[in-house]
Amino acid sequence: MSKIKTSFFCQNCGYESAKWLGKCPACNEWNTFVEEIITKDKSNPQKQSWKEQPSAGEMKTISLSEVKSTEEKRLLTQDAELNRVLGGGIVPGSIVLIAGEPGIGKSTLFLQLGLHLKNVTTLYVSGEESEQQIKMRADRLQMTNEDFYLLTETSTNIIFQEIKKLKPKVVIIDSIQTLQTPYIESGPGSISQIRETAAELQRFAKETNTPVFLIGHITKDGNIAGPKILEHMVDTVLQFEGDRHYAYRILRTMKNRFGSTSELGIYEMNETGMRPVNNPSEILITQKEDQLSGIAIAATMEGMRPLLIEVQALVTQSVYGTPQRTVSGFDLRRLQLLLAVLEKRGGFHFGMKDVFLNIAGGLKVEDPSIDLAVLCALLSSYEDVPLNPHICFAGEVGLSGEIRAVNRIDQRIAEAEKLGFEKIIISKYNIGQSKENEKKLLQKYNIEVITMSKVEELYQYLFQ
Asked: Which residues does the annotated region (Lon-protease-like) include (predicted)?
């Protein structure tokens, strides 16, 4: 009886060892050895993959010119946010990996997806929860579906036997780290098990044209647990992000062979599950009765999606001598850069001031176009003068105090106009030096578009 042969390889340099080593003798890196399979056990007839390899007579090469171009028919879900992130719906035969923090709502979102797919046979395979636990969650979601089936199993051999009997149109695996294949003797969640079970599911998806969703864990560093090859094997990688203390979640595309990687979906967690947020700008802007200083509205882009978000700043006198710089949802080094610009170009003395900055709603923003709103919020708090609540900002600030142009300015202006803003301040360089371009831009929208090139101009316009 043949045995499985394994060896240990350094993931940094490829050094091979018969046993696990803490430190690689070749590259001197620590904790880089993982077990890899060299020979699989094929002797057991019970241990069969999804489908046997085709014989030589069945295999055939084909010229590229013989391949017919057809538009891929996608399966549309009732979740418009998920359709957007996937590039327009579920592609038949695709394999999608979804990863996120524990408790973020991955299982809830895809249980909701399966229950929403009416007249589509869906198999939900859970290796972490019992049928009773899943039923309790479905009752909380207040959804039923006669075409939705459950299977609590971790062995791929049994899973594929049930798949052959049921013939589902969609398969959801929760989670890939709990599956184990009889080919490998190591425990579930190991490098070898994740790679082999994912390969079996990949073959099944491609050969049967059945979409497969793999829910995955992440490590404490925020990376997807398992080998990096797992992300290469799948067609789409989605990252489910958000702070568990806030209601909002972001489904972000990290890789997509069938659409753009610039799309994202926004959800709100409530007692009945994940609710897609079709117009997040209205939620991310706090409705206030009184005008308060230190608040500015930024027209930013999350992927291809325009968002209007609220930037809150608080500038106070430092009590302890060393000024504090505290941020939430924004890059601390970027804040220090903007403070230096205000010190040098505007003459504002932040050296003895504590500065606190917050992006409302728990979002984390990396778009440089938010610079202008951050700068205005800082000045508003510094002067203790509220800004006009009907003005929003879109612009990057350079080290010399210039307001730089940002991309997709038309989408930002249109979003601000849709939400009822009266004015938007942008960079003069977004429309060029031509007066005709400026005139066309002003006539195109009902919102007043104000162009500026220097931070000094902005301060005089808002506070003098």
From this structure: 354-464
